[in-house]
Structures are given as C-alpha cells and as structure tokens.
Specification:
By secondary structure, the protein is α+β, with helices and mostly antiparallel strands. It is 39% helix and 16% strand.
C-alpha cells in the first residue's frame, strides 16, 4: 500500500500538479484547442513509440477535467473503435 503522502509528492512535485509528459500532452492539445484527437495521434505528434507513453496520462487528464472524451471513431491502424479527446473549456492557469 502506498501512503497518501507519497501520492501528494508524486502529484505535486517540482513540476507542479502535472508531470512533464502531462504538460507536453496538454500543450499539444492547446495548439489545436477545438480539435479532438485519438490517443495514437497525440503519441505520434509527441514522437513516442509506445501508446503507453500517452494513454495513461490522457486518462488521468480526462479524470481531472483538463481533457474530455467527445466521441469515438475507428482507428485506421488497428480497426478498433477508440476515443476522441479534446481540451476542455476549463479556465485558469494549468501549470
């Protein structure tokens, strides 16, 4: 079991409430604030090889209300139905 203080340290470390990868994801969405992207598109835009480089962070940002799921579509790579996510209209400084 991980102590709550450990979570606080992780979530509010030197980089503030968002880690470097989460900040990079938010910044990429902020470049196109009214556009929804598949997780794979964000992975590619950031130059990562592995979907696990972005998918957990995107899920966390959705839970925090920074990003929102706004639909689904077929992924041309896998043929699977995947989520579309965009930046919310949340106001205020994120980081």
């Amino acid at each position: 079991m991980i102590h709550n203080n450990r979570h606080d340290s992780y979530n509010h470390g030197q980089d503030g409430p968002f880690g470097k990868r989460a900040k990079a994801i938010i910044s990429k969405y902020a470049e196109h604030p009214n556009t929804a992207f598949r997780d794979r598109e964000i992975k590619t835009k950031l130059g990562f090889e592995d979907m696990n480089s972005v998918r957990p962070r995107i899920t966390e940002l959705v839970k925090l209300g920074v990003l929102m799921e706004c639909g689904s579509m077929e992924d041309p790579v896998t043929g699977m139905t995947v989520r579309l996510v965009r930046l919310t209209q949340k106001q205020g400084k994120l980081f």
